[in-house]
Amino acid sequence: MAEHAQDTGSRKLPRWTALIPVGMLAIVLGFFAIGLTKDPHALPTMMIDRPVPEFELEPLGHELPLLKFEDTKGEVALVNVFGSWCVSCVAEHPELMEISSSGTIAIYGVDWRDTAFEGRSWLERYGNPYKKVGLDADSKLAIDLGVSGAPESFVVDADGRIRYKHIGPITPEVWNETLLPLIREIEMGEQ
Amino acid sequence: MIGEAGLFCLILALTTALVQATIPMWGAYVRRPRLMAVADSAAIVQFVLLAIAFGCLVTAFAQSDFSLKVVAANSHTMKPLFYKVTAAWGQHEGSMLLWVLVLALFGAAVAVFGTNLPATFKARTLAIQGLIGVAFLAFIIFTSNPFARLNPAPFEGNGFNPLLQDPGLAFHPPMLYLGYVGFSIAYSFSVAALIEGRVDAAWARWVRPWVLASWCFLTIGITAGSLWAYYELGWGGWWFWDPVENASFMPWLIGTALLHSALVVERRHALVNWTLLLSILTFTLSLIGTFLVRSGVLTSVHAFAVDPARGVFILAMILLASGGALALYAVRSGAVKQGPPFAGVSREGGILANNLLLLCATAVVFLGTFYPLIIDALTHDKISVGPPYFDMTFAPLMLVVAAIMAVGPFLRWRSDSLRAASAPMRIPGVAAILIGSLVAIFGKSLPAGLGIGFATFVIIGLIVWLVKRTRLGQIPFARSVFLAAAFPRATWGFLSAHLGFAVVMIGATAMTAWQSETVSFMKIGDTISLSGYELSLNSATISNGPNYQAEQLVFAVSHHGHPDGSLETERRYYPERDSFTTEAGIRPGVFANLYVAYGESGRIDGYTVRFNHHPFAMWIWTGGFMIAGGGLFSLTDRRFRISAPHKIRADRGTPIQSEVA
Q: Contacts of residue B338 in chain A, CB cutoff 8 Å?
């Protein structure tokens, strides 16, 4: 009976099928190569120099004031999107604390896809670098800003226009080599 | 001084790897034994040099030598010695050094233990292993030198993240590397086999232990990582489908396929080309995982120290290593002699079907992981892919995998009939439908019913298999025990691993479907309740730890009104870094974990407490370790210790079939 069974194993695949794996690898590597030329930290150009959309966020707790659109106006500000679920945010946090204590720029926090309890506990655990912080549980502001992940930070000028977006943690290098010079430049322009 | 010694060893290791990659390959081509023998000594010397280099780095960390850049950036004199040492592989440069150390370790192991390999084959395998070593050592020396100096040296280092000071995290990366770097051996064996154009049962017998060992380490690494995320990150989650988690999970999935197809090559000499392809793909995914983590093409929660130059370098490596191997496969696979045919319904057919499903699962995870990158390249939109995608695509595939996994062991090699194969599945099938429906109805969740139903199918299937194999009830009990005792160890390994898979399924299903949570503001004496448990806040005390202050809450627990011990949760304040950590109070249980954590300090005379009930949570990690344990036990099987391959009877498993027929 076994002799008459259909012989899956013996049916020879056409020779060209051996080329499929290498072809697929070529496609994958092609995408990777394109991916490398792109800065995942770059903002889609459409957002640059646009005004920050109007918003009013939920407060995180009675002791932390809510964050509104008008708050960031009048000075160059850094709007930082974070969440208690985000490990990279923990990694960037010491740098934010540093920036905040240096007084260079006011940092506003958007607690994204989070609950007030989690966000508040998180800030207590790691410290609060934010001048004001609000909760964006259902991504209302995040969608308008085109946020793709956390942490993400926006440099907003005194008129409330987005001048720069940084995706990923703010490291000391990013701060010293990119953000700080940019902020200085914007401040010079405004004076 | 120690930095220079380390760098010097690295450079020597690179030159040794160059020798290892070239001379034995040439020696195998011209059939000169003395040239081929260079491979062994080069592999061992390369490993020793890298071990010294790694030792130098660990010593620099242990001594807090802040004149080294990586030490200054990632360590601190206040750290306990244990965490100073583990910090040596907690950053990019050090972890790449560990990567290449593990690579050299496997190369040296082949040189030492591979005495039964044919000389040309061994020389070629080690040469390819050497070639990978060359690429990675060049990568380290030119883009990520761990021994770079800092002048002037700072007085104090700046790394002190209390969250990362955890034994789980200390051993998680080495385990993962032992796993996915270990697959380099399967890759080298396959490329060498393609060059020689010869694959036989002996080849499978040589390669299987290496695949199995790597796969076990990877299983342990992934399980430990998941456990760490659960107890230390404090969100009560156990798997996040994060790109970096996926980077280690994809090699595991396809490595599982490889493990089984290599078994078919060993036993039946079928699926030869398929196995060669899987070996290459498994290591390719390890390399892609490395690329993913090190290049920063995707922003991940684990992203640290990303640099496009490193990405380009690793991409070039994938192009050469995988592109080269797959091109070789395209040219040479036709020349490899194929094994005997088998029917669609047969043990081979079952394994092939599950192989294809695992490949699909890998593709699904791959697509989900890289979809943001693909979309960005095509349309410039930035998107992210979340757990719902994976739940919708990955989970159903695993149900089918479970179904075939239950039937597979009953199938005969070569050819079987559906009717004969389905006969022993009646009891498991009825049990699965019964338990699955009960779970779906009383648990009020169809996915939970499906998940647990299929897991039951696997478990009862294994029991039926065991009963049939030992002829329990047909012959005297003592004879049955004797039959079971005579099982090869690999059989017990298979039982443990398959059972472990079902156990993980139950845990994952239950956690996803039924975990519950309550958050409440509590004062001393207040009580909250969840899932039949009441938790009342008894006391809050403040104490001092070695380098932190701790505030501890103690809760009395009662279950349906009966006192049931207590739970403690703690928050620690580290003054050096001005930061808090939460030590969640977890009471692990067979059927559910209780999990309590709190947020607010007593500023306003109370605490915000979060209380979770995690049904079957421990099953996830218990199952994971059962899978790994099964693999490790199989590794001690006699088959892997004897050198001369012996022919296995083609009709293994026939007794079962003859009984049911």
A: 9-10, 12
Omega before residue B24 within 30° of 0, cis = no
Give the chain B residue nearest A92 (alpha carbons): B304
Residues B18 and B148 in one domain: yes
Q: Are B547 and B563 in contact (CB under 8 A)?
A: no
> Are the Cβ atoms of A22 and B326 closer than 8 angstroms?
yes
Neighbours of B393 (CB within 10 A): 16
Of B660, B533, B528, whose CA–CA distance to B593 is shortest? B533
pTM: 0.80
Residues B123 and B10 in one domain: yes
B368 vs B364, B392, B394, B476, CA distance in Å? 6, 11, 10, 54
Residues whose CB is less than 8 angstroms from the CB of residue B632 and which lie 6 or more positions away in sequence, other chains included: B216, B493
Nearest Cβ partner for B343 among A7, A35, A38: A7
Instruction: Answer left, alpha or beta for residue B532, where phi above 0 means left and psi between -120 and 50 means alpha.
Output: left
Beta carbons of B414 and A2 less than 8 Å apart: yes
Q: What is d(CA B583, CA B586) in angstroms, rounded to the nearest whole number? A: 9
Domain ranges of chain A: 7-37, 45-190
ipTM above 0.90, yes or no: no
Number of helices followed by number of strands (H, E) in chain A? 6, 5
**B-chain residues within 8 Å CB-CB of A9?**
270-271, 338-342, 348
Distance CA B659, CA A21 (A): 43
Average pLDDT along chain B, 661 residues, taken 10 residues at a time: 92 96 94 92 96 96 90 82 86 89 95 89 95 94 89 75 70 87 94 88 87 95 88 73 87 95 88 92 91 66 53 87 92 80 87 94 92 78 74 92 92 84 89 95 91 96 92 87 89 95 95 85 85 88 79 89 87 70 85 82 65 92 96 84 44 33 25
* DSSP run (H or E) holding B544: strand B533-544
CATH of A45-190, one of 3.40.30.10, 3.40.50.720, 3.40.50.880, 1.10.645.10: 3.40.30.10
